[in-house]
Write a structure and sequence with these properties.
By secondary structure, the protein is of the alpha/beta class. It is built from 14 helices and 19 strands. The two termini are about 30 Å apart. Bound molecules: calcium ion (CA).
Length: about 575
């Protein structure tokens, strides 16, 4: 289906380009000039021949993935470990004041390149995940998360990272949190009702869906060969899905947002009411997906390359470390949950090693957004700052919302323990991996993704790989990073209100100007607003931001990608 779409898209482009000269869609010799010299046939025949030959050539090119390179293609295994709501300051290797031991991630960092200026596309879950898996800014599609029983974030025509890897012979799996929607097959209108902030609100119950039918629109329809997980830990249905089927159908219902029979260790449960499997235990989610991941890795071998997208449900709320991790950090239950998360990541990395796969496997580690609002209180209670020195947290356009940890390890290729302060995004992972596996991206694929290979190779780069980046979560607030400058088109980057006590603790002052301007090199903590001092820069960045927001909605305006290989 994706191949058909690619061919159709190519034909559309081909058709569009004919009749034009010097089109910016395809950069090749004007066909009429070339063929007039070769073919002694009438002009109208030439035009038809040229069109047919060009169309056939395009189809062939589309079918063979534009393979041009004579270089041997590398097909390393690829593992993306994607943490949920983990802050930059939660990692001991990059926060000397952290109160949480993370020995496994410290070890990973020592064998990887560490990015100190890496960003997620959004400050919330679903949009960042979509951006990671498509190499595209989330705001081309939508700003908000996918809610419980929500529609897919994707369009069926979207080309994903697993799609392109599959075309290159990879086996692809997603284990853990999905949170990118499914096409639910409802048999009833929602028949449950609960009080949401005092207001009666309907919700789907177990009898409103047919659980025996496969559920489409999920990971299997986005390029993954295999899926195992519970969808989203705090959203119904509370049940295990393997591929596109429920292992056990939900027969009970969670009637409120509080989980009965178990205690949450910090913060709130944050559950949405809805169908659940009898005796569902949220404390089993993290251990179960960890075990499944280790098992899946054990089934792989060195003959077929694989791509594993391991999407953790932690340390996202509910903060529910297993009892054996209680007290293992000096940052309360969240710190303990972080320790468990680090432990799980250690098990996955160990599984790669045990199965002889470590050497030929690229491991990418990052988090989908900054820490949840409980991080404010944690800072005050324990002196552990999940957002590190950055301002704000999850949902914010402030740096703390999207400035995330990121590591990339590739044994014998990327220098272990190296660091890059280049401006990079998780959006860039798709183009980078496409180059590594010799997949030529078409212009509508991974439109916002930049190839990071020159950085990973440690090359002396004259101009930055990424000159600018848009920061955005919700529709009302946008930021543009360009070099050291950061412009925000609002008087605050805040979405999650910062408590006065926390402002006092960190000595933050509110700003009054209609927009904000920071020099991020001199002021990464976003304390000195230069909006009034540099009106010309503000004007320029505001105009560029508006231009990008308009231009980026046109897939034909994507620039060319290059393919240097590694
Ligand atoms: Ca998240």
């Amino acid at each position: 289906m994706k191949n058909t779409f690619r061919i159709v898209f190519f034909l559309m482009l081909t058709t569009t380009s004919f009749g034009q000269t010097n089109t910016n869609i395809f950069q090749y010799t004007e066909p009429e000039t070339l063929w007039t010299k070769v073919l002694p046939i009438p002009l109208f025949m030439k035009k038809i021949s040229i069109s047919l030959i060009a169309i056939l050539a395009m189809i062939l090119i589309g079918c063979t993935d534009n393979k041009k390179s004579e270089e041997p293609v590398t097909t390393p295994n690829i593992v993306i470990i994607y943490a949920d709501d983990m802050g930059y300051g939660d990692l001991a290797y990059q926060n000397p004041n952290s109160k949480i031991p993370t020995p496994n991630l410290d070890k990973l960092a020592a064998s990887a390149m560490r990015f100190t200026n890496a960003h997620s596309s959004s400050g919330i879950c679903s949009p960042s995940r979509y951006a990671l898996l498509t190499g595209t800014y989330h705001w081309r599609r939508q700003h908000n998360i996918v809610n419980s029983f929500g529609e897919p974030f994707f369009k069926d025509s979207d080309v994903t990272l697993p799609d392109i890897l599959k075309e290159k012979g990879y086996k692809t799996a997603c284990i853990g949190k999905w949170h990118l929607g499914w096409k639910w097959d409802f048999i009833n209108e929602p028949s449950g009702e609960y009080l949401k902030r005092g207001k009666p609100t309907k919700f789907y119950t177990a009898k409103d869906l047919d659980w025996d039918r496969p559920v489409s629109g999920g990971p299997l329809d986005r390029g993954f060969d295999y899926y195992f997980g519970d969808g989203t830990i705090n959203f119904p249905p509370y049940a295990w899905v393997e591929n596109d089927k429920f292992i056990q159908p939900p027969t009970d219902n969670l009637e409120s947002n509080i989980y009965p029979g178990f205690k949450v260790k910090e913060g709130s449960w944050e559950f949405r009411p809805g169908p659940m499997v009898k005796n569902w235990n949220p404390y089993e989610v993290l251990p179960t997906i960890s075990k499944k991941t280790v098992q899946w890795i054990g089934e792989q071998n060195s003959n077929t390359p694989f791509f594993l997208y391991f999407a953790l449900p932690s340390p996202h709320a509910p903060i529910i470390p297993n009892d054996e991790f209680d007290g293992t950090s000096d940052a309360g239950p969240y710190g303990d949950f972080m320790v468990q998360t680090d432990h799980v990541i250690g098990r996955v990395l160990e599984a790669l090693k045990q199965n002889g796969l470590e050497e030929n496997t690229i491991v990418i580690f990052s988090s989908d957004n900054g820490p949840e609002k409980y991080a404010f209180q944690r800072g005050e209670n324990y002196g552990h700052f999940s957002m590190g020195d950055f301002r704000g947290l999850k949902r914010d356009v402030w740096e703390g919302g999207h400035h995330v940890p990121m590591l990339i390890k590739w044994p014998n290729r990327i220098k272990g323990g190296s660091e890059s302060n280049a401006l990079v995004s998780q959006i860039d992972i798709m183009a980078t991996l496409a180059h590594i596996v010799d997949y030529d991206l078409l212009r509508h694929e991974a439109q916002d993704s930049h190839n990071l290979l020159p950085i990973l190779k440690g090359e002396n780069i004259e101009s930055p790989v990424r000159k600018e980046m848009v920061h955005n979560t919700y529709e009302n607030k946008w930021g543009l990073r360009q070099g050291d400058w950061l412009y925000i088109n609002s008087s605050s980057g805040e979405h999650s209100p910062m408590p006065e006590s926390f402002k006092k603790l960190r000595n933050y002052k509110d700003f009054k100007s209609e927009g904000l301007l920071f020099n991020m090199k001199n002021d990464p903590e976003q304390r000195i607003n230069l909006f009034a001092e540099y009106p010309e820069i503000v004007k320029e960045l505001n105009s560029e931001l508006n231009k990008l927001r308009t231009l980026h909605n046109d897939p034909l305006l994507k620039k060319d990608t290059t393919k240097p290989g590694l």
